[in-house]
Amino acid sequence: MRVVEVIERKRDGAKLSAEEIDRIVLGFTKGEVPDYQMAAFLMAVVWRGMDDEETAWLTDSMVRSGKRLDLSRYGRVVDKHSTGGIGDKVTLVVAPLVAACGAPVAKMSGRGLGITGGTLDKLESFRGYRVDLTTKELMTQLGRIGIVVTGQTKDLAPADGAMYALRDATGTVPSIPLIASSIMSKKIAAGAHAVVLDVKVGAGAFMRTVRQARELARLMVAIGEAHGLDVTAELTAMEAPLGNAVGNSLEVAEAIATLRGDGPADLRDVVLAAGAEMLYLARRARTRAAGRAMLERAIADGSGLAKLRQLVAAQGGDVTMVDDPSRLPRATRLRTLTAERTAYVARLDASLVGLASVRLGAGREKKGDPIDHATGIVLRAKPGDRVARGEPYAEVHSSGGSGDAEALDMVGRAFTWRRTTVRPPKLMLGTVRSSHGGSAPLPPPGASLDP
Ligand code: URA
Asked: Ligand 1 pocket, 179 CB below 6 A?
């Protein structure tokens, strides 16, 4: 079969076979299929779509393009993935909390691109933190302290890395089958037994509507289930940024505050929902409510924060920054925006705040750009809040770069005001679960379960 025929068949709307998909994906990984043919194939998928079976075959080919880790010797390992948002520092809080509650967490994270931040960039705010662990180092650390947060190793789903780079440059990112297969191939290859997906919906997310997000969630859950994983997808709002801080070290400081029991309510809600589901799927909690209580205890007794400290130390980071977040990189300039008249925040546009953070240097205009860990935005008011005349509603932390004035203007424009009261928007927008994820979990022999 010739590759051009596979492309033509997809262009004309045909359903491809597993062999045809293998031919193009594995051929591309080996260098036999050139970029221009893969780009044409991806554009055909964007226009014509794929059904569930084709998407499952595509995911499978991408997994088989590299190695699949076997983490079974560590017990039921749980992973978490967000489809990307503004101010989304959930991993920094939930991963240590869940690990502190006894569920091994192996998380391979990504870098920020465009307006969405990335966990690896945030973690590198800790001086010296390594995000390039080898598979052997990952396994050793998981066995020793029960938590790893590192970058994707090159041998896991290599087809995805190469395909994603092409998609980024050819306008072929926004396709539900391509996004679902990209995310799930990495999760399956990384070897976790259960995955909690945080599917973001709204102005600052890939998925603009609940309907699209539900479709993406359904597909990812089905793919995971077909590969023997327990998967739950939670749909959460990304109209406004999550929490108050946007920008790498500002977000790390907010994550530490949340682990100390002092974080913003919306961030805490998403953390507790994701973490409770992770503990339930890892079979450390009999019910989600019990999982939530375990997480609350891990915040109250400091064991979550101690686990973050252990993680940072294990990966070579400066732990004094965990103990004293004022040691994290700090911007040299601070501008405060104050309200001209008393009003309520009606809307806060996450995409404008994200764009402002990129202009400040906290994110990348293009892949490979350096970032400034110190800069960002702190939101002093969120939708539903009342701000009195003269009171601050946002802070812009900058390093005196050429984009500062534009960023300041964007943050101001991100707020829409109203004279009358505004109801705070809904945060949790729905859940999609795999069928075995919903069944009563059985404790593994000798495991400590919550009461
Ligand atoms: N995140 C991914 O890993 N892949 C996509 O295609 C989109 C978001």
From this structure: yes
**Which DSSP category does 440 fall into?**
P
d(CA 109, CA 434): 23
How confident is the model over 397-425, as pLDDT tens digits? 999 999 999 999 999 999 999 999 999 99
pLDDT at 448: 30
Domain 72-325+427-438 -> CATH class:
alpha beta
What's the gap in Å between 183 CA and the centre of ligand 1? Answer: 5
Decide: 183 in ligand 1 pocket, CB within 6 A.
Answer: yes
Catalytic residues: 81, 160, 167, 182, 186
Name residue, tokens 């991993």. 91
pLDDT at 436: 60
Q: Determine the Cα–Cα distance for residues 337 and 351; give it in Å rounded to an integer.
A: 18
Residue spans per domain, the chain:
3-49, 72-325+427-438, 330-418
| Closest ligand 1 atom to 178 CA | 6
Q: Decide whether any atom of ligand 1 lies within 6 Å of the 199 Cβ.
A: no
Give the Cβ contact number of residue 202 at 10 Å.
22
Least confident window among 16-25, 130-139, 162-171: 162-171
* CATH class of domain segment(s) 330-418: alpha beta
- In this structure, which CATH number among 3.30.450.20, 3.30.70.930, 1.20.970.10, 3.40.50.150 belongs to the domain 3-49? 1.20.970.10
